[in-house]
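pinned: reference chain
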Amino acid sequence: MASPSDEKQQLIVDTFSRFDTNGDGVITREELAKILKRLGPDQFNDDAIDTLMAVADTNKNGLIEYKEFVAWVMQDDKKKKGPIDRRGSFSVDFRVLLPERFESDIKDRYSLDKLHLGEGGYGKVFIARDKEFENRRVAVKRVARTGGSLSEALQAEIDIMKDLDHPNICKLLATFQEERHLFFIMELCEGGELFDRIIESGSISEDITAKIISQVTSALAYAHYRGVAHRDLKPENVVFTSKDPEDLHIKLIDWGLAIEFTDSPMTAAVGSFSYAAPEVILSHNKNKYTAKCDLWSLGVLTYVMLCGKPPFWGSRTQHLRNAKNDNYPMKGGIWTSMNPNAKDFVRSLIKADPNKRMSIDDAQKHIWLTEAVTDTGAADARQVLSNLRHFANSSTFVRLCITAVARQLDHKHLKGIHEAFKQMDINGDGVLSYEEIKAGFASSFGEDSQEHKETLHIFAGLDLDDSGTIDYTEFCAAGLGQKTAAQDDVIWAAFKTFDRDNSGFIEKKDVQSILDDADVQDAWSVEVCKEVAHDIVEMVDKDGDGKICFEDWKKLMQSCWDSKRSFVETEEVPDISREPRKWGTGGLKAYDILCAISQLSCDMDED
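pinned: its structure tokens
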């Protein structure tokens, strides 16, 4: 398959030839005007065309030569991108769409059940209901703040959970900080712990074990890629999202002992003794170890699921002696009829020497796991992919609003999108590459389809944070249908994301704070952020009090979907004229003109 850069280069060549109608190798002002006025007759007036001509014609001979045309287009890759096209030509960190409440009473927002679900690292976990919409339930982890201060460990846990965005990692929705406690608001996984299922059944079937371990491995691989080790992998920290025994979707929880290992070495002897790697137990809080400690725990977890017993037991001394010698039973009983690939997977992980332990990449590719993956079908994926195409043509603020919705949705709302994501995530790394997106469009619509031809443009529109891959939340936001996103409880959660001080209203300072924190300021100045915040509030605020209430917000979200639907229904060339342009600086995003031209259905050469 062609790379994004190859496809972009071909797009440049094709578009140049459309401008160069007489084929003489240069573009005259008349040729430039002919195409641009077809794109936007109201926006591309004579002054605008003269400005663009002056920007591109660097040798000032009155013509745009091919090398000048390429330089004009490629300038977008060489400088900070500005707020000049409605699809969003700058990066936005969607991870900041996580409300953090300071000195705010959680009881004003949620009703907490008295009985707790369980106990995680340093805290108890409760079920809570949103007081505004009681059908919206969440899990709340309450942690005591020592001396009223937020420890480095707690701040690290918040930062890690904000950063991790994977379909098999429990989603953090918000935090509340009070004088004595910190509350983690998380999606509620009602299916219970894997530990309970092992206790109930004695062991888990080999087929189901492989399907579950495949998800755990994917979550660990994603975390390790981002420089995070879990360090407390055990059955209690793997939970099912649903009570339905046929639904095997799991989430990895409790990142209280997790650590970013790229900047600081791991030395602490932490985790559960039965599942901790020998190098962790023997670190004595000073000897370094690596993220391969999670791979040992993965092997022990798999062993326990398959046979219902731990590989090592007895006293601490006996446990360590057997662990260091890779001495554990794998003969007789249930192991006699066990798939050799399952046993090989376990043996490759339970290696006392970390250097001999299977890598996380090899674990993902292991035949035992790859054979267990089931085809989820393409019917739902086709509709989700159609939504991706439409989302990519929305303004940055529209995409930010819809992403705020997606950021607050739990697994119940995202089931169909989750299945489509799994189907497209061919290598199981928890993100989607350009090639995987392209392959998804080819599979669902065909290689000759317009959707497949627009992959490069769509990919750029989905990649909000400009990371070069599509993260899970980015995909979910783009794949959402209006039916899900228009539910009042869902819109309410997104509204509270922008209501940063929990006042019940969204004010200009709230919008500006979101824009600042989302790294928009890297492209927009402080003054522009203020102006945009002012314009947004002025546009939505119906009673002129300078605040956006929930009803105003609902209407705003409806307008977001109306803008998407108009494109869906008409299939017209995206309107690239909605954002104000600064023509005097030559600030038009050249590459987006190429994309718009490439989507014109008529043969402009005949005009």
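why pinned: The two ends are 33 Å apart (CA to CA). The mean pLDDT is 80.
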